[in-house]
């Protein structure tokens, strides 16, 4: 895609202070489905222009409902959503023009051709056909060779690319990716990450939902965790990881240790399998990690060790802890 | 108005017809020819005239209406049901398109396709029997109104249906019988008196009667009544569609 591919869009209000106001602003959004199931409980969230925001949560937490409500597929029970300053109910045309959506569910279209499908998407957004842009986007997503293939001839990964092409053909400022890598192979997942990072470089704001934590860890600037319809945490990814991140020090012993000596009981050590390792957990942000004291105590107890290594807890562990706590 | 979007949906729907050309165009020609062989030839030869018109010519307006109604209905119901079935509807609903624009595009495409079929039947019938059209303006009016009304009706069914059975249920069990009993192949006068009264409860009677009048100047009910009933039916469909928009019924949970 050429550099100006996403910069031509002039649909933000002219006096819109891009750097000061969030590009998406969600206020007290609630959704109770007609069956009585409350999928969203007073969700408020601001998304900044140009950031990659990852929405994490277990299945059924409300991720898709939140995205669908922002995009206009689900009617909120109460609350408001502003996209680029436009209310997504009363000024839905202006609001929706800024948004591209890649849904989680793969539509079961069979006979339609790739190019026809992507052309239709552009038309729906009220834009005249642009064959040059179409070619650029299809080439960029490695779909050009399949441009006239029917959907049924494509692999699952290729179909997902078609959905991305459809979401990009109207040059949105904001791209929603609902579970972009669910059920795709490693190569396509890497590809998807590459696509996201290039879009971010072009200034597109990206909101993705996932339950692959490594995806959020790899791509996101900020992370929101949703569980049972409540947004339980929104944090810069780096800050989140250091704040909640715990570090572990693994000590591989030279000799088997039947039990932890009395002198070391105060450190909260865990004895590993076969008594050949000790695990020490500490707070990486703490004033004192206690490592020096521990190592001295180990020497005094006459324990010899072959190796020492540390491990930082991943976003996945943080996430599991959070959801469990709720 | 997002005309570009309406155009896109309209031509997308029309393109689907091209892929199923045999089914959409060749089959109505074939079935019309069969009707003429069976009703016009075999049975019609024993019925000399109905209301001063040869039986073969008498059934032409009814045949056109029959196809127009069933085709509008099935095209529109399938047209809006299918993207819900495949999941592609998300795209239309998240685009800057109003419900009104969505309806005009889908209903317009469905009505257009049905009218093309109606026109083909009209031309095919011309090979079998001499046809005259006494009131061309009224003929076009009834033609258009019927196509649009039944396409709207089909659109409603397509949104209401959440499985293929429901999609087929109303057209097959209600609309087709009403259309057949609506006087396509006979004049209401030919029924026993009690049944004549029952027949007047069938809205299709008014459509066919009005349409036939525009051909031969003969009708079962008055022109005014025909056009009024047609407009009422259209009004009811428009009202229901408006209600669907307002509530987001089935489309927007």
Automatic annotation (TrEMBL), chain B:
Membrane topology, record value: Multi-pass membrane protein
PROSITE patterns hit by this protein: ABC_TM2 (PS51012)
Gene Ontology molecular function: ABC-type transporter activity
Annotated transmembrane regions: 21-43, 55-76, 114-131, 138-161, 167-186, 198-215, 221-245
Keyword terms, alphabetized: Cell membrane, Membrane, Transmembrane, Transmembrane helix, Transport
Family per similarity comment: Belongs to the ABC-2 integral membrane protein family.
A GO cellular-component term linked to this record: ATP-binding cassette (ABC) transporter complex
Keyword field contains Membrane: yes
Ranges of residues in domain ABC transmembrane type-2: 19-248
Keyword Transmembrane helix on entry: yes
Protein name: Transport permease protein
